[in-house]
Design a protein that fits this description.
The structure holds two protein chains of two kinds. By secondary structure, chain A is α+β, with helices and mostly antiparallel strands. Chain A has two helices and three strands. Chain B has a single domain (10-110), classed as TATA-Binding Protein, CATH 3.30.310. Chain B has a five-stranded antiparallel beta sheet, with helices on one face. In chain B, strands 7-8 form a two-stranded antiparallel sheet. The chains are: A alpha+beta, B alpha+beta.
């Protein structure tokens, strides 16, 4: 079962923005950096990596490939 | 959450873009955190139905008998110039009100920009909420 991948953007009352990528394990979450900058028309001033970033994504395709070889 | 970004939208980001043609003419100055001429104009119109003369880096209006001159500073934000020291208290109160309304306009601008860009890119808006602290939270589904 695939995890729900979500982009959560919060705009505070002063116009400051935070964006979070949820449900994407490993460095591939950074593939969304460009998208976020384009959506917000802004510059990223800080980036915080979480434990999910250091987890490895299990790809369903890889598993089925292994099964087919058995 | 795998990564979290803090972002300053360009609409609130300071940058040095002072135009040398805008020269200081007044005796007293208030710095502000406002950088968008368009949003300042919208704010002045919404709050005071103010008539605004001039455009670009230098424009002026009269509110409650105070003449306010908005001039782009070297930091990339507008400063407000006024001419009589006895108006300082009134001008400070006016600018406080203007900045408060301006911030709301900035939030609306960013909200509308994100929604428009997301629609262009085909992102699915899953949820939209306003928090108690007046933050707007948009949740997009990236699964396509």
């Amino acid at each position: 079962m695939s995890t729900e991948r979500k982009l959560i953007i919060s705009i505070d009352k002063d116009g400051n923005v935070t964006a979070e990528i949820n449900g994407v394990k490993g460095p591939s979450c950074k593939d969304y950096t460009k998208l976020i900058e384009q959506l917000i028309e802004g510059k990223i001033i800080n980036e915080t990596l979480t434990s999910e970033y250091y987890e490895q994504e299990i790809k369903t395709d890889d598993r089925s490939h292994l099964s087919n070889n058995l | 959450m795998s990564v979290r970004y803090d972002i300053r939208p360009i609409i609130v980001l300071g940058e040095a873009n002072w135009n040398r043609s805008a020269e200081k003419q007044s005796a007293f100055t208030f710095p502000t955190n406002m950088k968008s001429e368009g949003l300042i104009r919208n704010t002045l119109t919404k709050l005071y139905q103010a008539k605004i003369n001039g455009k670009g880096n230098l424009f002026e209006t009269v509110i409650n008998d105070c003449q306010l001159v908005f001039q782009m500073s070297g930091s990339g934000f507008y400063e407000v110039n006024y001419f009589y020291s006895q108006e300082a208290g009134d001008v400070a109160a006016l600018i406080s009100d203007i900045e408060a309304e301006y911030k709301g306009m900035v939030q609306d601008y960013i909200y509308n920009t994100i929604k428009a860009k997301a629609a262009e890119k085909g992102l699915v808006l899953e949820q939209e909420a306003v928090q108690k602290n007046q933050s707007i939270v948009l949740t997009f589904n990236l699964n396509g």
